[in-house]
C-alpha cells in the first residue's frame, strides 16, 4: 500500500474547507485508541474522542482562514506486515479574510499505521515545528538564551546610563531625587559649585574641563559617608545630602573637609580650581526643591563674598 500518497491526500484534505464528508474521509483512518501530539502544549490527545472534541473547536476557529499548502513530501518505512511509519515535512501558509490571523507553519510529522482485523488504522501522529532560535549544530536552544542574555545586558547598561551621569559616573539628579524620597527627611543639604570653571574651559579647552569634573567627582566621593547621596546636578554643580547629620557644627566640619580635600588635590594637578559650598538644614516635610532652593541661597552668599568657602543658612 502507498502510505506516502495516502498521507499526502489526508494533509491536503485537512487544510481544505472541511465539511462533514471531508471530516469523515479523514477520521475513518484513525484508531479509536490513537495518540495525537500537536505543536501546542495542550495538543496532546489520547484516544480519538479527545481529538474529535478539539478538532471540532479548531474547525470553528479556522472557519474564516484560507490555507495554502505550499509544499509536502513524505517517505514510508515498512517495519513488518502490520506496521508502517510515514515521516515527512509540510509547509502551510494561511490568513483570515480580515488579515487578523496570519499562519506560516514549516513543520515535520510522523504517522504510524497499524493493521487491525484486516484494515489499516492510524495509531499515532506527531506534528512539530522546529525551534527557529536553535542554531545549526545545536541540540538545545542556546542561541535564544544567548540573545536573551545579550538583551538583558543591554537593558542593564541602558538602565545604568539612565541613572548615572555620563562623564563622572556619579548618580544623576533624577536618581538622586528618587533616592531622596526613600531617605529620612532631616539632615543637611549641600550645593557644590566649582569656582571659575568657565575660565578652565575657555583657556584650556573642554577636554581639560571634563578631566577636572571627573577628578572632582572622585574627590567628593572619597569624602562622603557610606549612606550620603551624591550627584552631579549638571555643568559644574554637584549635590550632597547627608541624612541624619545632627547640627550646623557637623555640617560645617563636613563642608570644610570637602574644601580642604579639593585644595589638596589641586597640589598635584596642573589644571585645577577650588569649590564653593552652600548648605541648608533639611527638616521633616521639606521637599527636595525647598532644600535645593535654601542651599542655593547659601551658595549665593559664598559666591558674593569669598569663593572657595562655605556658608549655611
UniProtKB/TrEMBL annotation:
Pfam families to which the protein is assigned, alphabetical: GGDEF (PF00990), SnoaL_3 (PF13474)
Gene Ontology BP terms: cell adhesion involved in single-species biofilm formation; negative regulation of bacterial-type flagellum-dependent cell motility
PANTHER family (UniProt xref): DIGUANYLATE CYCLASE DGCM-RELATED, REGULATORY COMPONENTS OF SENSORY TRANSDUCTION SYSTEM
GO molecular function: diguanylate cyclase activity
NCBIfam families from the UniProt entry: GGDEF (TIGR00254)
Protein name per the record: Diguanylate cyclase (GGDEF) domain-containing protein
Any Gene Ontology CC annotation: plasma membrane
Residues of the GGDEF domain: 185-313
Amino acid at each position: 500500500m502507498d502510505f506516502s500518497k495516502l498521507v499526502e491526500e489526508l494533509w491536503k484534505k485537512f487544510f481544505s474547507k472541511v465539511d462533514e464528508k471531508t471530516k469523515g474521509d479523514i477520521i475513518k483512518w484513525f484508531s479509536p485508541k490513537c495518540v495525537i501530539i500537536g505543536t501546542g502544549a495542550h495538543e496532546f490527545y489520547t484516544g480519538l474522542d479527545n481529538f474529535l472534541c478539539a478538532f471540532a473547536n479548531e474547525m470553528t476557529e479556522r472557519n474564516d482562514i484560507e490555507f495554502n499548502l505550499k509544499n509536502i513530501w513524505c517517505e514510508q518505512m515498512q517495519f513488518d506486515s502490520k506496521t508502517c511509519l510515514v515521516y515527512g515535512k509540510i509547509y502551510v501558509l494561511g490568513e483570515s479574510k480580515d488579515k487578523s490571523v496570519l499562519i506560516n507553519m514549516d513543520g515535520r510529522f510522523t504517522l504510524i499505521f497499524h493493521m487491525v482485523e484486516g484494515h489499516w488504522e492510524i495509531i499515532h501522529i506527531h506534528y512539530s515545528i522546529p525551534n527557529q532560535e536553535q542554531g545549526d549544530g545545536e541540540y538545545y536552544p542556546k542561541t535564544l538564551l544567548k540573545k536573551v542574555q545579550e538583551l538583558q545586558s543591554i537593558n542593564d547598561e541602558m538602565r545604568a546610563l539612565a541613572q548615572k551621569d555620563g562623564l563622572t559616573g556619579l548618580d544623576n539628579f533624577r536618581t538622586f531625587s528618587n533616592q531622596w524620597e526613600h531617605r529620612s527627611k532631616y539632615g543637611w543639604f549641600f550645593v557644590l559649585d566649582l569656582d571659575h570653571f568657565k575660565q578652565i574651559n575657555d583657556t584650556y579647552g573642554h577636554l581639560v574641563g571634563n578631566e577636572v569634573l571627573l577628578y572632582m567627582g572622585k574627590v567628593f566621593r572619597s569624602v562622603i559617608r557610606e549612606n550620603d547621596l551624591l550627584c552631579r546636578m549638571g555643568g559644574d554643580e554637584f549635590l550632597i545630602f547627608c541624612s541624619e547629620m545632627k547640627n550646623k557644627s557637623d555640617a560645617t566640619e563636613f563642608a570644610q573637609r570637602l574644601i580642604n580635600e579639593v585644595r589638596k588635590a589641586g597640589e598635584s594637578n596642573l589644571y585645577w580650581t577650588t569649590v564653593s559650598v552652600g548648605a541648608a538644614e533639611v527638616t521633616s516635610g521639606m521637599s527636595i526643591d525647598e532644600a535645593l532652593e535654601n542651599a542655593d541661597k547659601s551658595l549665593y552668599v559664598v559666591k558674593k563674598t569669598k569663593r572657595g568657602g562655605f556658608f549655611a543658612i
